[in-house]
């Protein structure tokens, strides 16, 4: 089978990108032909399969010169559509598996796939198909509505009134023409929570199937868990990840915390930590080092305050035999078994998080037991073999 993988980033910028790149590699490893359609970037992982990269646009800091090009790309990218059409004519894929495409590609590619009779699968990695604010979170907290007016009123996109107007307008245009709902043959949701949320928010397209994420731990997954006496966090340093809550819990307990990652709130978080000697900011580190820290931690903390669609960072430690403390929110609420593979705390509950951290710190045997149970559950429910069978079943159904 020949599978076309489409994602706007081809470097590990976030969880969706890590998954898309891994899936392409795993499909090829299993004997399938894989071709990749993505966007140019200096950090791209060079695919060892046929690929086509289109030009990128500036999205972080718009100015009067770059804004028109970016807005045009968000609405309808002629380049993406034309390049994909040419790529399809050359490669003739059996099925296309789409991940994140908005902004850098736009949904202009979807009618192209339909025109050339390429069945389409889309894995949902966030809420960008239900709201212009793809995280449903802003400086005021969770946006329960995520509507046109709500996103603009709350400055829900990039904390900017102008950016919010642009994003909300583009989203409403795509919604009104139904470009996603009309052109996607099969939706894959990673949790039941996300599937239910799409239904509540009025999604009229394919009802979809649930296939949880899977994690390739590589050689780290074969090593025994080693408690080196620290608590670990890995993720983007952004308000949605709740690192500010973790810092306050660390202030109350005095327990040693290692924080891996970078992001827009790094300086603010370092300022919040101030002279605290029990917090160590590691910066951005390679994935293999992240997994090594996870394996050697007493526990991993995932204090997210937004509606995480899944939370890969809460699954990885379980596969390494390390217990997890996570917020009971969004898709994260389906990743742990409370009291068995880790502990749930309510989001933004500093005292609750501090208590949970202290509990596992004071009882390393309980932490070890939870880690062992987590590893067994990981092997039973999140194996690569199980995941790939479900993915291939979807592909086969669509092309048969």
| Large-scale geometry | globular
Query: What Rg, in angstroms, do the CA atoms define?
Result: 21 Å
CATH class membership of the largest domain? Alpha Beta
Low-confidence stretches: none
What CATH architecture of the largest domain do you see? 3-Layer(aba) Sandwich
What do you see in this structure?
With 400 residues, this protein is an alpha/beta fold. The protein has two domains: 170 residues, Rossmann fold (3-Layer(aba) Sandwich), CATH 3.40.50.2000; 164 residues, Glycogen Phosphorylase B (Rossmann fold, 3-Layer(aba) Sandwich), CATH 3.40.50.2000. It is 42% helix and 15% strand. The protein has 15 helices and 15 strands. The strands form three sheets. Strands 3-2-1-4-5-8-9 form a seven-stranded parallel β-sheet, sandwiched between helices. A six-stranded parallel β-sheet has the order 12-11-10-13-14-15, sandwiched between helices. β10, α9 and β11 form a beta-alpha-beta unit. α9 crosses α13. The longest helix has 18 residues. It is globular and about 60 Å long. It starts with a strand and ends with a helix. The model has no long low-confidence stretch (mean pLDDT 95).
């Amino acid at each position: 089978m020949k599978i076309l993988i489409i994602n706007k980033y081809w470097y590990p910028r976030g969880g969706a990108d890590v998954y898309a790149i891994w899936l392409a590699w795993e499909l090829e490893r299993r004997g399938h032909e894989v071709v990749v359609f993505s966007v140019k970037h200096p950090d791209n992982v060079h695919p060892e399969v046929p690929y086509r990269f289109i030009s990128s646009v500036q999205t972080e800091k718009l100015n009067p010169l770059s804004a028109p090009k970016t807005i045009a790309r968000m609405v309808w990218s002629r380049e993406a559509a034309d390049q994909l059409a040419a790529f399809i004519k050359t490669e003739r894929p059996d099925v296309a598996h789409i991940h994140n495409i908005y902004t850098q590609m736009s949904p202009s590619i979807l009618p192209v796939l339909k025109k050339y009779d390429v069945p389409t699968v889309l894995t949902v990695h966030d809420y960008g198909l239900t709201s212009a604010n793809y995280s449903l979170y802003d400086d005021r907290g969770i946006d329960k509505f995520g509507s046109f007016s709500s996103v603009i009123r709350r400055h829900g996109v990039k904390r900017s009134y102008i950016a919010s107007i642009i994003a909300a307008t583009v989203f409403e245009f795509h919604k009104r023409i139904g470009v996603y709902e009309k052109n996607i043959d099969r939706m894959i949701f990673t949790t039941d929570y996300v599937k239910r949320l799409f239904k509540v928010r009025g999604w009229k397209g394919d009802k979809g199937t649930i296939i949880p994420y899977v994690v390739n731990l590589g050689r780290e997954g074969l090593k025994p868990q080693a408690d080196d006496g620290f608590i670990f966090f890995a993720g983007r340093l952004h308000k949605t990840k709740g690192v500010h809550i973790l810092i306050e819990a660390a202030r109350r307990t005095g327990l040693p915390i290692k924080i891996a990652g970078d992001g827009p709130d790094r300086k603010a978080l370092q300022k919040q930590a101030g002279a605290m000697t029990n917090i160590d900011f590691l910066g951005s580190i390679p994935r293999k080092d992240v997994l090594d820290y996870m394996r050697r931690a007493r526990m991993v903390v995932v204090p997210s305050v937004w509606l995480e669609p899944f939370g890969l960072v809460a699954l990885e430690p379980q596969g390494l035999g390390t217990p997890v403390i996570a917020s009971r929110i969004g898709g994260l609420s389906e990743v742990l078994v409370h009291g068995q593979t880790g502990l749930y705390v309510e989001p933004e509950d500093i005292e609750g998080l501090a208590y949970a951290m202290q509990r596992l710190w004071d009882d390393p045997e309980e932490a070890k037991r939870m880690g062992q149970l987590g590893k067994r559950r990981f092997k039973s429910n999140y194996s690569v073999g199980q995941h790939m069978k479900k993915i291939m079943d979807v592909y086969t159904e669509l092309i048969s």
